[in-house]
Structures are given as structure tokens and as C-alpha cells.
Known about the structure:
- This protein is mainly α.
- The chain has helices at 9-24, 27-38, 44-70, 97-112, 129-147, 156-171, 174-205, 209-219, 221-238, 242-260.
- Helix 2 runs antiparallel to helix 3 (44-70), helix 3 packs antiparallel against helix 4 and helix 3 (44-70) runs antiparallel to helix 8.
- GO terms for molecular function: bile acid transmembrane transporter activity; sodium-independent organic anion transmembrane transporter activity.
Amino acid sequence: CEKEPSSYMWIYILLGNMLRGIGETPITPLGISYLDDFAKEEDVPVYVACLHTIAMLGPMFGFLLGSLCAKLYVDIGFVDLGSITITPQDSRWVGAWWLGFLIAGVTSFLSAIPFCFLPKSLKKPEETSKAKTRYGLLENMGAARKTIPPEKSRKWSLILKDFCASLKKVLGNRMYFTFLCCSLLQFSSFIGFLTYKPKYMEQQYGQSTSKSNFLIGLTSLPPVSIGIFLGGLIMKKYKMSIIGATKFAFTMSFFAYVFTLLHFFVGCENNVVAGMTVSYE
Length: 281
């Protein structure tokens, strides 16, 4: 047996994704907290919906960019493209998967620059009763922090103890825990759907990788974005409480699962594979 050539490029991809995750993590929780603290109560659902809608448009453009990169040969710029005899429809074709990382990385870096010009401290919110209460709470917390020793001087055991207590309190909230379980189920199904649907389209319908990514980005994600935005508008119009929003989310999720069950009635015949669907004879 000949030793196959090995590459350590996966380490750079792993580290790059870790850094990207660290940089992206504060945007959603801090952004939603900022909107909840400084926006009017009836406008928060719309603003949060806009935030999530934009977050869903990103993967859509990512699929479209992936479709474009998949049409280009993997070694573009290093080999003579005229000497390549295979086409994107060939199973041996490998697209320029690495090009998307470069384009997305440069775009993320440029979009992060404006954050450097944000003020260190935010302006005092509008003089509403809710804003006054929340701002006063923040001021009290800030005064309390001055009496607490810096984080560096605190022992790790105390930090871990506080973290465990906070985690227990959050998970003890039945509504939040139920919402967390529902989110896990939804994202698990959604991730699997996006992961395997392009490969399914390639195998069952004979589509190229480029066209499969293009169709996924064009048909799957825009409806989700529209749904998130419409949900925010409905919550704003009817001024739903937490219980009302929970009932609304349950009803919509139930209908979504009912429609999803229709996938079981749509399919194609299995391909003829020797030793699996037919005998070798």
C-alpha cells in the first residue's frame, strides 16, 4: 500500500472558523439586548425580526457565491484551464471551494471596521418608564460593580460557582427550557435539510454541484427570511404578550410540521445498484 499524501490545511480552516465564531458570537445576544433595552416595547419584535432576517439572507448569498465558485476549477490560477477535459457535470470535478473563504473573510473584515467607531458608552435612553427603570437598574449594577473586586482578583472557583448558579436558574425557567428544546429540534432538522438536500439533488436529478447550491439558496432561505419578518410585524400589530407569542409560535410550528410531513409522499424510484437493489446476475 502506498502512503497517501497528507495535508495540514484543515488546521488553518479549523482555526479560521474558530476565530470567526468568536467574532460573530457577541452580535446576536448583545444586539438583541441593546434593542430590548433602548427600543420601544412594541417595536422590539420588528427590529429583532429584521436582525434575524438579515442573518438568514447571509446564507442565501453564501449559497449563490458557492454556486459561482463551484463552476470554477479548484486549481484556478495555478493550472491552464484549457488543458482540463472534464466539466462541472463530471463526478470528478472539484470546484474552487477555497475561494468562498477568501471572499467571505475579506467581506467580514470590512464590515467589522465600522464597529471600531462606535462610542465606548451609549447615550441615555428615552425618558420612558420602562427605559428609566432599566437604565436605573443598569446604573445600580454599575455602582455595585465598583465595590466588587476586578475579575482578575476573583478566584476561578467563585466564577465557576456563579456560572453554575446562573445556569441552574436559567434552565429552571420552564418556558425558556421548552423554547430551548424546540429550537434544538428545529435547527437540527433545518441543518440536516440544508446539508443533504444539495447532494440529494445531485444524485437523484443529475444536477451539478453549482446548480444545486444555486437552487437551494434561491428556494429555501428567502421564504424563511420572509416568514421571520412577517412574524415580527404580526407581533407588533397585535402587541402579543409572552404567553400570546408562545401560543402563536406553537401554532405556526405545528402547521409547519404538518406541511413537512408531505415530503414522505414525494420521492423517486431507487437507482439500480448491483448487490443492493438488484442481484449481480
